[in-house]
Amino acid sequence: MEKNGYLVALAGNPNVGKSTVFNALTGMKQHTGNWAGKTVASAEGNFEYKDINFRLADIPGVYSLRTNSAEETTASDFISFSGADAVITVCDATCLERNLNLALQIIEANPKTILCINLLDEAEKKGIEINLAVLSEILGVEVVGVTARDGKGLDRLLESLYKVITEPSEKVPIKTGLPDEIETAVNAVEKIIEKDLHKLPPRLTALRIIEGDKNFIEKAERHEKITFSSLPEITEITSALSDSEKISDKIIESLIKKSAEIAEKTISYKKNSPYERDRRLDRIFLSKKFGIPIMIILLGIILWITIIGANYPSDLLGKILFGLGDIISSGLEKLHAPKLLDGILIQGIYKVTAWVISVMLPPMTGYNKNRKCKKYGKTPAFCISF
């Protein structure tokens, strides 16, 4: 633990609710959005639980720790080199199998991982059930189900985090099964380097060496102040591998296969096809026959609203605001206020602001999940504000 608290990384795929979990735990108001790659740098916040201070870092949402983009590099470097005391990996309950690919990589990088299964309410609507106890047993880590936007399950998440930090785990974290030749090579390299590694996890480092990840190896050598290339045993092992250029592909294939196996054992469906409605809409909106006409119609509606339709509420809003300005101006005149005051406050500041509001506000729409829609008595998917 550092002086200012235990460092906990918050990881996960894009658009699984990481920032919502972050805000709920830290009380900060980091902007949340429903588009991939929104978090492009790590945001950090603090919170206390049972008199222990935690520093929570919300790192970029990625699909893999294999560095093919700036976001993946940032996430991989943070998990590998930051010395985080634990990692909370947020997964989407409605597409858990896809999320397990990253979760398996993170578990190998940091055994003190907690799997946070978010959006359980959405999964329930689709008839998806996840056996959290079996999932925890298979992965060998703590697994907690939450609905972060409603705050449900966060108390159990905090308790699991406290347990992982303060108590030695009796569970053995899962290792992704690799092809025999690669698994043998990884185990051999791991035995060679583990005595020289003080901070990095030996298996993760061995995997990256076998894959030939030069970027990771260079950072690892600087981090641990050793040179892997100077160890002839490693060169001998890597050169003996057949078809070495496809090792990374084989490892990724093993991760996908393992994710599918785990999903099959832990996920059940009440409905024959929980995504039938989505598929039905896709067949309409993405079809060759209807897709382009629908797109043109929607673009036409948007253009009409922007160019013509918005003029009607703009005119109404302008009349109200400018009428109010005239009333205030008349009031100042009756009070015998200096004309300079009326010129600056009303004719200048107020009417310019009123003009901008009346022109710009009507075309604007905004997502606000906390606004209550009086007509329906519930929170709508989106609200349009005039």
Task: Please supply descriptive tags for the structure shown above.
386 residues, 6-stranded mixed sheet, alpha/beta, disordered C terminus, 8 strands
In a few lines, what is going on in this structure?
This protein is an alpha/beta fold. The protein is 52% helix and 11% strand.
Explained architecture:
The longest helix has 24 residues, at 311-334. The protein has 15 helices and 8 strands. The protein has helices at residues 18-26, 70-81, 96-109, 120-125, 132-139, 154-166, 180-193, 202-211, 214-224, 232-240, 247-266, 276-285, 291-309, 311-334, 339-360, and strands at residues 6-12, 43-49, 52-58, 86-92, 113-118, 128-130, 142-145, 267-269. The chain is an alpha/beta fold and 386 residues long. Helix 3 packs across helix 11 (247-266), helix 7 (180-193) packs across helix 8 and helix 7 runs antiparallel to helix 10 (232-240). The radius of gyration is 28 Å and the shape is elongated. The strands form 2 sheets. The chain has a 6-stranded mixed β-sheet, with helices on both faces. Strand 4, helix 3 and strand 5 form a beta-alpha-beta unit.
